[in-house]
Amino acid sequence: MKKDANTDYDIHPLIKQRWSARAFSQEPVEMDKIHRLLEAARWAPSSMNQQPWRFIIGIDKDETHQKLFDTLVEFNQIWAKSPVLILCLGKTKMNMKDEPNEAYSYDVGQAVAYLTIQATQEDLFVHQMGGFDKGIAMELFNIPVSYMPLVILAIGHYGDSDTLPEKIKILEFSPRLRTEIEEMVFSGSFGHKADIFAKK
Question: CB within 8 A of 150, min separation 6: which ones?
Fold first, then answer.
């Protein structure tokens, strides 16, 4: 299923094509594709090259996959039946000194973005979920307190949307919408629209 973005300006096709599906196939994800997704994440930029991202991956209903699924809120458990689940963590302290890394969550977000674009290249879909119990995740995976669970990724091939409950199927087919670019880009002061988008 395609839901290409209706963009105002030409952008890279992979960015146009990426969207957050909920209908996942049970077809296993090829291991070489999983390797490339994680390699793409590894090469994301980060503040001072701290690389604060860490990933806990569950594949094809192994024990880790089940534990990750168990942390999801009920709404996400209804549809997040993808063959790959990944918990993304961020190291909250600097690598060489016991000081806060103020950029850790931003940097993990960049790594996930790289992974997501690579997934689109591989004809895979990624749905990012904040709806999970972070405390349970910390316990189940013995996560050190210096790491923060941030998001769980559902990854897989596209499946049959007819298997989704009706209320979720509506979300699957709803149009992709974004705030107008003029409403989010400012110049001079916050809220003052940048004239680079002025209509001629």
Answer: 88, 89, 90, 105, 108, 109, 130
